[in-house]
Specification:
16 strands, Porin, single chain, mainly beta, 2 helices
Length: 336
């Protein structure tokens, strides 16, 4: 009930905001509000962009109750403060709310730029893809459970400083983060390194390498344990065919983990109808048998607009230590 109210509150807020920013303003409108100026529209001379999306999800599982839920309801504000200085703020209203992004970027040139604040950790193709742009309802298990910023329930985000840019066919993002997650101070004296490099040799092909070297504080032993990740990625877009694949391996103290996924998509009608197939595999402990899970996903996407779509996914879960199960997911996304 509370999430439903938040959904309609988000929709109402979007209409109010759009109505406000479309109203023309004069210099007098930029003065602080007082009794004489009451009723005037307050705005800003800065170029601002407001965007957002909400996702309503239906989940049907064998041996469990079917349910509706508001999965995400996000609002984002970004803009340019100076010629070389931009900012972005994003919140999720389904979680009280939660501050997801709060960052500033200093844009110097194509080769070298700075980003500071709270942002997506530069690691993995799928982890750095917005939830509103995923071709399947769920992320791959290996990304959700192993990518930095998602393995600790922080929506892929952390606090830190990153340098990024483009050199010839290469794009890079390198930096330091706390490693503790969103809206949290560092829990140890060591900063974590995160980096992602992508090569675009042409013909729609992109190859990437991601590295993460960090530590996490273990309260019972009062020690800092290893938290390292290595990721390889590839993507290829050729006419109406799209292919994404990733492999990620990690180490948490003495536990070694790994996994991969392969995803293909075919446009039946560009920007309108699409079929998606995905196979993903994750092993949470390579030294223990019977822990791995493999998920087969078949889905269809109907794009209503660039930011709105209807998605239908059927997932079949094969667990080595438990009975197999199937899940039906229907998700409506409304965005602007």
């Amino acid at each position: 009930m509370k999430r439903a109210r938040l959904f309609w509150l988000l929709v109402l807020s979007c209409f109010l905001i759009l109505a406000a920013v479309r109203e023309p303003v004069s210099a007098a409108n930029l003065e602080p509000e007082n009794q004489e100026s009451r009723g005037q529209t307050l705005s800003s001379s800065l170029p601002l962009k407001i965007s957002g999306f909400a996702q309503l999800l239906f989940t049907g599982q064998n041996n469990q109750a079917d349910t509706f839920s508001v999965r995400r309801a996000r609002l984002s504000l970004d803009g340019r403060i100076l010629k070389n200085l931009t900012f972005k703020v994003q919140v999720d209203l389904t979680r009280s709310p939660v501050l997801l992004d709060a960052l500033a970027e200093v844009l110097l040139d194509e080769k070298f730029n700075l980003r500071a604040g709270q942002f997506l950790v530069p690691f993995s193709l799928e982890s750095t893809t917005s939830a509103g742009r995923l071709l399947t309802v769920n992320r791959s298990r290996v990304v959700d459970l192993l990518a930095p910023g998602r393995d600790n329930g922080s929506s892929g985000r952390d606090l830190g400083l990153v340098v990024f840019g483009r050199l010839s066919i290469f794009q890079y993002s390198l930096g330091l983060v706390n490693g503790a997650g969103i809206n949290k101070k560092d829990d140890n004296e060591r900063k974590d390194f995160a980096g992602r490099i992508i090569a675009s040799p042409g013909l729609g092909l992109r190859l990437g390498l991601s590295l993460y070297n960090g530590r996490r504080f273990d309260a019972p032993t009062s020690t800092n344990l290893a938290r390292n990740r290595l990721g390889l990625e590839a993507s290829w877009d050729f006419r109406s065919f799209h292919l994404n694949a990733e492999y990620i391996q990690g180490r948490d103290d003495l536990i070694e983990k790994n996994g991969w996924y392969v995803q293909t998509a075919v446009d039946l009608k560009p920007d309108r109808y699409q079929l998606v197939f995905k196979l993903d595999h994750f092993d949470p402990d390579r030294n223990l048998p019977g822990q791995a899970i493999t998920v087969y996903t078949a889905g269809a996407n109907w794009f209503l607009s660039p930011a709105s779509k209807l998605q239908a996914n059927f997932e079949y879960h094969r667990l080595e230590a438990e009975p197999d199960r199937s899940v039906l997911l229907l998700q409506l996304q409304v965005g602007f």
